[in-house]
Design goal:
Layout: H1 2-26, H2 32-44, H3 50-91, H4 95-108, H5 111-115, H6 122-125, H7 127-132, H8 137-161, H9 166-190
Helix pairs in contact: 1-2, 1-3, 2-3, 2-8, 3-8
Length: about 200
């Protein structure tokens, strides 16, 4: 499976990396760990370059996070709440989750956007409360870009180091994809509004 994804990433090139990383942060088709990790394999094999990969991956991460920030900043609480209440099952998200994330953001401040880049799920989720709190756009983009750059550097480096361990890499990639898909399906199937619990 990982060979197929490697070929797809190589064929898509750096523009493909931007698109995949943006989509991963809006609605994850493939986790960033897989995209940038396998990008690191291509770097080790000389089929991609480190800096263009890092820059394009980080731009994609920033754009994807900005989509959620924009939704919060533009739509606000009144327009966003009905959307989440209607689409909650598909997003595996409830309005109460947004309120909790917003309270966490307000309590811990704008640096949450930077540090959240290193935490699964929350690294995307934090963008919405940042938008709802009308965090300054330049600050949001700067913190997101810097945090994503550090995380992507780690993923590319890890992928490069595992490039020669083909069998191990295959198991890691397969495991990440299976766990991500299974986690989403479980949350989707078992999702219920709190009012029905």
């Amino acid at each position: 499976m990982h060979n197929f994804i490697i070929q797809a990433i190589e064929q898509g090139g750096y523009i493909g990396i931007v698109v995949l990383m943006a989509l991963e942060n809006i609605f994850p088709p493939i986790p960033s760990e897989v995209i940038m990790g396998l990008g690191g394999v291509l770097v080790a094999q000389g089929r991609m370059q480190f800096w263009p990969l890092l820059i394009c991956g980080t731009i994609g991460s920033t754009l994807g996070n900005y989509a959620w920030f924009w939704a919060g900043d533009t739509w606000g609480y009144q327009r966003l709440r009905p959307f989440i209440e209607r689409r909650g099952r598909w997003l595996t998200l409830e309005w109460e989750d947004v309120e909790r994330a917003t309270a966490f953001f307000l309590k811990h401040g704008q640096w949450t956007v930077f540090f959240a880049r290193f935490l699964p799920v929350f690294r995307t989720m934090v963008s919405l409360p940042a938008g709802l709190a009308h965090m300054g756009k330049p600050t949001f983009l700067l913190y997101t870009f810097c945090g994503a750059a550090i995380w992507n550097t780690f993923l590319i480096t890890a992928g490069s180091m595992l490039a020669d361990a083909e069998q191990v890499l295959g198991w890691i990639v397969g495991g990440i994809i299976v766990l991500t898909a299974a986690g989403y399906l479980w949350r989707f199937i078992t999702w219920k509004p709190r009012a029905e619990r």
